[in-house]
Amino acid sequence: MDQTVPDKTLSAIGAVPSDANHEEQTYIEQARYWHAHHWQEFQKSQRRLMFIIVLLLILLALSVATWAICLPLKRVEPYLVRVDSTSGRVDVIPTFTPAEPMPLSVTRHLVQEYVQSRERYIAALAEADYVQVGAWQSAQLNEQWASEWARSNPRSPLNVYAGGAQVFAEINTISFLKDTPPYLVQVRFKRRESVQATDAGTTQNYIATLRADFKGVAADPTVRALNPLGFKVVEYRREPEVSESERIKQEPVHER
């Protein structure tokens, strides 16, 4: 008796793989290969992306560090250009910016000139002194200065000394209570008021306390010509100096 089993029967029971199973296995292998290949490509692209990001961060850090190092070297230097309205000639106005504090000798000289010009009154020099003192003062002091000299003010020097009287200021001592900017200076001086040039007049001692600094050169050419160093007085106070004998006279006497 023949025991041979037909091929289709073996295939039916799974003993021999069919074409369909072979194609399925091939598809699965190709899918696995495709998945693995694309996963590797994805990982490569991720590594490239991370490399680019790290490189950009390094470049950004270098640029920020370079900017921070170069920032102190960058500065803006304004300059003033003057054009003559008649001839059209153009010239650059030089400016002065001190790199270090002014010597005390220069500050002392300017303080002396300021107090003398402010406290004296000589009719021939009154207008020049008024303008010069304004160039040395801050805007707030100039407002007070203008109101003190206004004709409408009864105590204005223009009204008080209109009859020809003169006031002379003589500096006694200049003391720096603070010798670094902003300077705090105390000036002792005496004012002598005389009706005539030959009149001895009356003399009164005063103490002036002022605060000053060098604020930079003004843009106005007139002010710059009068104050080329940028000296500015920001606070000024004057009070009579009382001597020891006068102070004793003013003290009340207590009876026992």
Oligomeric assembly: single chain
Q: What is the H-and-E element order? A: HHEEHHHHEEEHEH
Query: Which percent range fits the helix content?
Result: 40-55%
CATH architecture classification of the largest domain = Roll
Q: Tell me the domain tally.
A: 2
Distance between the termini: 164 Å
Helix and strand composition category: alpha+beta
Adjacency order of strands in the biggest sheet: 3-4-5-6
Radius of gyration: 46 Å
pLDDT averaged over residues: 83
Report what the structure shows:
- The chain has helices at residues 7-13, 19-70, 104-119, 126-136, 139-149, 157-160, 221-226, 244-250, and strands spanning 80-83, 90-93, 166-178, 183-194, 202-214, 231-240.
- With 256 residues, it is an alpha+beta fold.
- The chain has 2 domains: 18-68; 101-250, VirB8 protein (Nuclear Transport Factor 2, Chain: A), CATH 3.10.450.230.
- It has a 4-stranded antiparallel beta sheet with strand order 3-4-5-6, covered by helices on one side. Strands 1-2 form a two-stranded antiparallel ribbon.
- The longest helix has 52 residues, at 19-70.
- It starts with 6 loop residues before the first helix and ends in a 6-residue tail after the last helix.
- 10% of the residues are buried.
- The mean pLDDT is 83.
Present the secondary structure layout.
Blueprint: H1 7-13, H2 19-70, E1 80-83, E2 90-93, H3 104-119, H4 126-136, H5 139-149, H6 157-160, E3 166-178, E4 183-194, E5 202-214, H7 221-226, E6 231-240, H8 244-250
Antiparallel strand pairs: 1-2, 3-4, 4-5, 5-6
